[in-house]
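Hi C.,

You asked whether I'd gotten around to modeling the 82-residue construct. I have! Everything is below, sequence then structure, no commentary in between.
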Amino acid sequence: MSRNEKTILAFDQAGNEYFIDVFVSVRDLSDLQHAGPIQSGLPAFRTREGHSVTHLGGGEFAVTVPGEEEPITVRTDDPEFV
């Protein structure tokens, strides 16, 4: 099960904005012996248009747009990623 954790705003060098949704896989383990525990996986990133996004580190992301040869590098100043 995946859930949207948050949305961040990032910009390319030309100033175009990209909304990147951060998804985290969450497995509810409450049916096991103890009630309540939840296990989270690594985050996955996608643009609002459904394009694949790779976190490069810090506030940098690479957006893979169909039809483009190279991924587009975008940057965010979101405190969680800076």
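If it helps when you're writing up: Residues 2-75 form one domain.

Thanks,
B.
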